[in-house]
Amino acid sequence: MILDVSAGYELVTSVAVLIALSPIVYLIGKKWGKAAAWLSVAAAAVSAILVIHVSYTLLTSYNLLASISFDVASKNYQLVIYVPFQELALRINLFPPWEASLDTSMVYFPNPFDRSVVYPAFHLFQYRLVLRPYYNVIPQPAFRIEAPMAVSMNPLLLLPLDAGLVADGLSASVAMLISGLGALVVFYCTTHMDDLKQPGTFYASLLLFIGGMLGVVFSTNIIEFFLFWELMLIPTYILVAYYGLTEKRGATALKYFLWTTFGSAFMLVGMLMTGINLGTFNMQEMGVILNAYQNFIYSSVLGNFAPWLASTVLGQQVQLWLTLAIIGVVMALPVALILVGFAVKMAIFPLHTWLPDTYMEAPMPVTLLLSAAMTKTAAYGIARIVSLYLAPSVSTMTIGLGILAIVTAFYGGIMALTQKNLKAMLAYSSMSQMGYILFGYAMTTFFSVTGSFFHIINHGICIATWFMIAGLLLKQFGTLDFEKLGGLAGKMPLTATLAVISGLSLAGIPPLSGFASEWMIFVGGAVANQYLFLGLMVLATAVTLAYYLWAIRRIFFGPLKPGLENAREFPLRYTVPAIILVVFTVILGIAPNMATQFFAPLFGATPFLPTIYGWEQITYLLAALMMM
Amino acid sequence: MLPNAAWLCWIIPMVGAALTPLFSKIHPKVRDILAVLFPAVAAALAVSMIPDVMNGFTILPQPEILVGESPIPWDITQTITIQGVSIPVTLRWASLLPYNAKVLWIPWLPVQPPIEFWQAQYAFMIPRGIYAGILVDPLSVFMACVVTCIGFLIMVFSLGYMHGDPDLTRYWFFMNFFIGGMTMLVMTDNLLQLFIGWEIVGLCSWALIGFWHKKEEPCTVPKYTPEYRTTEGEYNALCGMKAFIMTKIGDIALLIAISVIFFVSGTFNLVQLQQNAAINFAAPSIGWVTDLAVRGLLPAVALLLFGGPIAKSAQFPLHEWLPEAMAGPTTVSALIHAATMVKAGVYLVARMLPIFYGSQQILLEAALKPTNYASTIMLTSGQWLFLYTATQYGLSTFFNTVASIGVFTAFLAATMGVVSRELKKVLAYSTISQIGYMMLALGVVGTSAMSVAGFVAGTFHLMAHAIFKALLFLCAGAVLHAVETKDMFEMGGLKEKMPITYVCMLVGGLSLAGFPSFAGFFSKEAIFGATLEANQLAIYALAAIVVAITTFYTFRMIGLVFHGEPSSHVKKIEEEHGPVKEAPLVMWVPLVILAAATLVAGWLEPLFRQFFLGPLGAYLLEAEYVHPVLLGGLTFSEYPHFIIEHTLTHEQIVLLEVYEYMHLTTYSGWLSELASAWMSIAISLGLFVVGFVPAWHYYIVRRGDPSRVTGNRVGGAIWKFLWNRWYINQLYYLVFVDGFLKLASAMYDYLERGLDSLNYVVAAVTVKFSESFRKTQTGIAYVNIMYLLLGVLVFMFLLLVFW
Q1: Is A558 touching B (CB cutoff 8 A)?
Q2: How far, in Å, CA of B63 to CA of B99, rounded?
Q3: What is the ipTM of this complex?
Q4: What's the pTM value of the predicted model, to 2 decimals?
């Protein structure tokens, strides 16, 4: 237990070190550019190590739980979904930290996944246990808590607004990606960006950027989420506007800024609506309250009108379905608004027009972070805010979101196919991959959401490798045009190998990590009964494979192009970040469990609404009528 | 069986692949020898599994995941004696590994996924997540032996053929990875891992076909593609990419099918899929095949599943990648495009066949005797019959498609082979054609009553073809190595110069053409027998015609390469590098081994049938119980009606079927069966002569001039049509490459630019608005005061009105 308390401080430190050191780096950079760079490397590395340590602290305890969770031979298999903890699911403990370390109630919750550690960041000094909610199939008398309902009757008076950081399977895995990539990228900058105008500003912005992203994923409530979200925007604006590659950088940065703010405006409205509807902004509590809603509807609707039905298994199923459907309808508008904000960040068609320009404009390490880490915060946000707690609402939008996702995947892929420049191709490629991720969320099934979440990590790793290699090529040859590159595999076999592995992984070729997540997304499509969508989505992998193979062939294969005779392999110091990432690509492909063990249990306990076309519509209609 | 052989036989080549770069740091010699050693070990491990399988010893993974009671006797050991022939039918569980040896099971997903409540009947199927595993049964062991043994011989051949290549590390890496991936594909127990192996194979083929991507010589290959470039290297890289992307199209279909099957059945495990195909005994409910049929998805899913084999085994319409794939080194062609990779598709069809076939039989049985299943599911005979009809409809679509595509591909590719100029392309077309035969055999099984015979015919042809095609390719490699050209018209007269290669090629060619006593003859006759058994006369006719075409192009090839006078190119080579010599020892020894195998393999057919008699045969026999003799050649769809009228006891039918099958596993029975099929053999021989005579006339003794045939109008038109490969390639390029790229760039120019310009339209409108509005900001004091007063007035007015 003491370990967990220290883990909490580590969590705070991992974000704080980046944000706090940012102005210091700026000041140092005014005089000593190299020192600023290496200080940034140190800060990013410390942050990454802390995040990874916290994450693995979560994991070690989790394994203890998994071994006792489930009995195959049980005849009541439909009821064994996470039964062991259901009676504890709603208990919220509120006490100061010195009590927490002694409190025996901790013993009841050996699973840190269920026990999100919330630490004070601002003025509230309290240690708090918030449990991840479960929706239960069986009605429990103890669940009929009036308090959340009462809260929601008086939302403006009782809205609790506390800030903190939470590490659970979801945020920890994305945070590992972001901080790990952050550390590698800052290190990469020390070799790649050696002729910076103002290294202090650059590295300070970079640190602030990474810190902002970490803050986003570690946020405990959606207002805090939003604040970090905006914080993340400012350094990226600086990085694009001041370090852009062409003369258009100012305009491009403005375009990027305006687009993101446009999305954020929608998102803020949606978040406020969510908070007011549910009576809390705390994401964990949102789930608890939804649970209470569900039980309220449970008992009041069927319990009053058809008590004889409520006691049967069928009745329970109907009730679950009905209540989830009602919640889905109630929360549909706020969820849609939030999704607009995320869609802008993820560059979902047709809200993507900021992306190509910005990616082309930003220097390579920044593009890398934009693509591999920043867009992932939006994907994480969907998983955290929407899929995990508001899954029923997403279920109501399966078809619309599915179409958007497929259009994005194909559109990005086709655009990537036409590009004559590697960086532009990669920009459209990452847009296309966002389509896959959105598709998984849209299907709202266990497999697809787990796969999407896993794809966040895989895509982050693989596209980062490609951007690093692109940066190195650009640095050596001064161009990324396919026309001018060719036949480099003989000259730089290591680089070619790295590029090939990452490209194939993105195209979903096993045994690489991209496949491990993509098949889950596709299976999810089948589970959601969307066979046409499934087929189209899988077809998009052919486009992906086509443009990656084509790019690889044009850059690395064939005879050497004139002007490249002096090409040579990059020094190991340049390629080490890419090598590390490729090793992860291979390892996660062979043993995807290494990553999925963090978040699959969380999605496993989420009650995704089963979608069967036709029934769904009728029930939603019924639910809407009832709400009137 | 050697310890853990089933795991190690695919892990060892993969590990070997991973270690190759390390070995290359030690010494190139060490690397080469070790690279060949890994497949040797794998082959030894694979072969060591044969005796166990022959003894009816089947290893199925994870016994604890199989829950529920199945009426299919998984645990029987009994001997049936009919007319003095005693038949052991044995099937039992055994675990290869200690019970707790979970280290080798790689968990894919850690938790039990929640199953939505109306799919709760499937929840039991999912153990603690999704694991990697192995399945040892005759089919998998047979395939593993073919892959590793032939792979090993090809690797030995490569020692000579690829000697001195600067990129050998890459070569050994992908060759070993390929063998490992392919062996994993066939040894695995679940569809997901099978798909992984499937894609590994595709990946390696991409890398190996484009292996010589650095070649600077101008490209000698005729122009087929708009992407055609000037150098050989670029052409090779293009061919590799083409192969990968075309097979990917099939993989997409396969992945969709696997996803849907997983959703419906809740499992990837092949054993569970087989157990729960028709009826899910543990849930209890209808099984996944029946479920798909009721949902109306069965034809679509089965055909999507077949999409994978279509691409991987180069069947029409996705066969176009294979001829181009000859751009790789000849050893690669031998390994990937003849012996193993293209057989993956055949393997998958053979693997799914008992599942599909068995499910409709079980439903039929349930329809006849619903009381047998009453403890599982209470359905009336009519309800069962409905389920049977739905399933049978979907599956007959699948089987008929497999058979028709197989026979059409056999014909299509054979005609292309007739006009080819390149030595390896002839072999490529013949590969496509022969795989068409295998598909045809497996397809007619589904509509035939004698399913085991046809099944074994298809797999037997797979083995025979793997051997003789590897032989032919390696011979071609030896020839290409000697004369340094791809074009057959630039060879000729090599008979005396390379006698061993000549004899080996002749053996391979005779086997390919189906000359009696060679391996290809027996397997082809078995296929024809199965086709006739199923009453598929049209398919038989087309398949028989292909024999004549095959014979023609085979002997055209041999004649052009080995007979006649040496061409000017050969003379030039001899002037430059000295006389053309026989291939070195390390190259011709594998040739001789394979030639000997070609001569022997055909005579092992009864033993081969015995090999398959074990668990798989038992399963098939158990699943089907309708005897063709009793039914007098009725087609399959007429069975239910017939059975309802003449009910046989189950035991009677099984015994008769077993007897029929056992008959063929003894040499006397097999020979008498061959003798009774004299008419089919006579037709085949007649067609052999029909194909052989023109080849002999034009190309071996060279009495006639073939250009007189192609010179006239009709002949020329046919020649042009075949030379352009029925214009299929051109069509694909027109639509899917050029057309698609045109569409893409049009989208980029209009849609993407248009969307982007909307940004600037908004910006411009905003600027316009503010510029026009700015004019109100005059900065003149009295105007401002006037506005202020106006504002106050409006405000007061609003207050008064709305207060």
Answers
A1: yes
A2: 9
A3: 0.83
A4: 0.84
